[in-house]
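Re: the 354-residue chain
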Amino acid sequence: MQPRSRRNFATGQAAKSARTVVIGGVPDGLLPDDIMADILMIHFQKSKNNGGDVEEVVYPTREKGVAYVTFEDQKVVESVLKKDEHQLEDRRLSRRYLLTVTRYCGNVFSSVTAVLNLSVFQDQFVLQDLIQELKRKSTALSFGPLQSNGHISVQGSFPEMQLLRDFLLLRAKSLSEKDKREKSKSHQRPKRRLQQHRLTAKTSDSARDADGEKHMVVLDTDIYHYMKSFSPRTFLMSDDVVISDVIDGDITTVYIESAGSGSDAGRVLRVKEKIEHKSLELHNALRKERIYFEGHVRSEKQRYKQACESLKPRYPHILIIPYDTHIDVIGNSSQVFEFVKEVSSKVQRRFQSS
């Protein structure tokens, strides 16, 4: 069933993520989803609940018993969060249910910035028209201005950039095949032959990749660490598949290749596809919060690390990555915020008692 929603497209609003809260403890399976979404909307519109005009309620979500409520005004978020206790009550419910309300944590994983050379398409397409088509197909990507040399910068998530790459490779392949058919019919200018060489080279790289000899997957480093911690089977190796990685800051490149000439090339491809699928799933589900150390005092850092470790058993699906200046906390949105809030509270109590 589709999430129940109400939308307001007024301009000048704060970013949607800043106007959204995560609701936990929603009674699951008691009522149809659309009715439960209505009950949530009514609850968060009431003044006694510190609520206000609701733009959208998203329920159900990937997480059982979790909903997302977006308000029209960001100030309502602060008001709702200040209320000590939210109890969901309605005549259609047999009793009251205690809800947890936390701030929405936007997806802050690394994005990719790439420079595309579209000049190879300029003999076949009006580049501005091609760019408009790319924008329609890739609405989550941000495109810069087209340069005079046919270059254009693009920024966005790893999965979206991968889809754009695949689309352009298909376009390049179709042009290359068309060139081969027309080669005997007309003489091409030297410039066109150079373009054809570039297109053919790109297509050949793709073909070698498809044969299963060697594959490469580019991942966000945080997602890679999360996969290694909580989905280690994704990287299970056998005698005929070798997996290696190169971690370079925010980006990790994973290489999957056959162990020998007699290895099953299809198995290499299946391992690659499994990693890509899991990465996309986590990219859509995970959020990251960062706990900054207020100073560089060693004892303060130790307090934060100890607080994280003491709370970890209660949050088994939270990944903690400590650094010299901060700690990254990675997991689903509601748990991340609850965890960070408890860590801060725990550290504050220890500081006051010391």
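The CA atoms of residues 315 and 339 lie 7 Å apart.
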